[in-house]
Amino acid sequence: MDIKVLGTGCANCKATIALIDQIAKAKGVAVKLEKVEELRDIMGYGVMSTPGVVINGKVVHAGGMPMIFFVAPVARKLTGRVLGVTPA
């Protein structure tokens, strides 16, 4: 699974990368996690508010920290694999 986090390095961008990495490791899902920081590249995805999340080439989130319960269903829909955790 190819995941890109779009952002210039703000706290929410860093937290988004950490969240996705944590979920993937917890579930044993192999991901290629890439940070995209160049504004030209970010805008190329049509994202004007960061952080943005791109999974397998599709923008699935833009603006603000994605919630853990959002990341999991989107990843499952795109890949057929469970990525998230069950809410307590």
SSE blueprint and pairings:
Layout: E1 2-6, H1 11-27, E2 32-36, H2 39-44, E3 52-55, E4 58-62, H3 68-79
Parallel strand pairs: 1-2
Antiparallel strand pairs: 1-3, 3-4
Structure description:
There is one protein chain. The chain has one domain: Glutaredoxin, CATH 3.40.30. By secondary structure, it is α+β, with helices and mostly antiparallel strands. It has a four-stranded mixed beta sheet with strand order 2-1-3-4. It has helices spanning 11-27, 39-44, 68-79; strands spanning 2-6, 32-36, 52-55, 58-62.
What is the element string, with H for helices and E for strands? EHEHEEH
Count of spatially separate domains: 1
The global form is: globular
Radius of gyration: 12 Å
CATH hierarchy class name: Alpha Beta
Helical segment count: 3
Low-confidence stretches: 84-88
How many β-strands, per DSSP?
A: 4
Report the average pLDDT across residues.
80
- The helix content, as a percent range, equals 25-40%
The computed structural class is alpha+beta
The biggest beta sheet reads: 4 strands, mixed
Named at the architecture level, the CATH assignment is: 3-Layer(aba) Sandwich
Q: Separation of termini? A: 26 Å
The percent range for strand residues is 15-25%
CATH topology: Glutaredoxin
| Biggest sheet: strand arrangement | 2-1-3-4
